[in-house]
Amino acid sequence: MIEVKMKCKDLQARAKAPRLPRNPEPKEWLASNLSQQKIADYKPFNFVDGEGVRCSLYVSGCKFSCPGCYNKVAQNFNYGYDYTKALEDQIIADLGQSYVQGLTLLGGEPFLNTQVCLQLVKRVRAEYGHQKDIWSWSGYTWEELQKESADKLELLSYLDVLVDGRFLEAQKDLTLQFRGSANQRIIAVPASLKARQPILWQAEF
Ligand code: SF4
Fold this sequence. Notes:
The protein is of the alpha/beta class. 32% of the residues lie in helices and 19% in strands.
């Protein structure tokens, strides 16, 4: 009887505990093992995924499993459609519009789809240099990415802005700019790489 009561208390405590995202060990999750190079969505000319008018690529697949994830279907690495040269050409053409400020990568998890994201950001830099900026969202924190695989660090090196960290329901705040929860940060990547520590991004105007 005492054992049954203890089990009930355990279950009640577990039910009350806040649901949390998963925390990988460094290099535990690799794009080379996980990515199916699928795209959940592509949204050209939007105003919500960063500063200015942006072209946003939503890659498929994420293992963080944040409770309350804004795009749960895109957690599946097989969701959506194949990344193709035709789509890449379309993104490059859309970015060429003078009113477009840049490219945004989100998902899903861009850093678990580095095959697609690296190919695209390299082409953006080859075609437009730094005339167009590149933003990415990630469930990884800046500090976690520093201990990650070479492909993730390479992708980071192409970014201008990283919005980092899991979505935490307990810190959800709908008033935050570009973020869903208060733990997430908007990081200026070139300055942070130079300083070897995260420097927060600030809007230019
Ligand atoms: S990191 Fe982003 S995409 Fe992945 S589960 Fe969390 S909220 Fe969803």
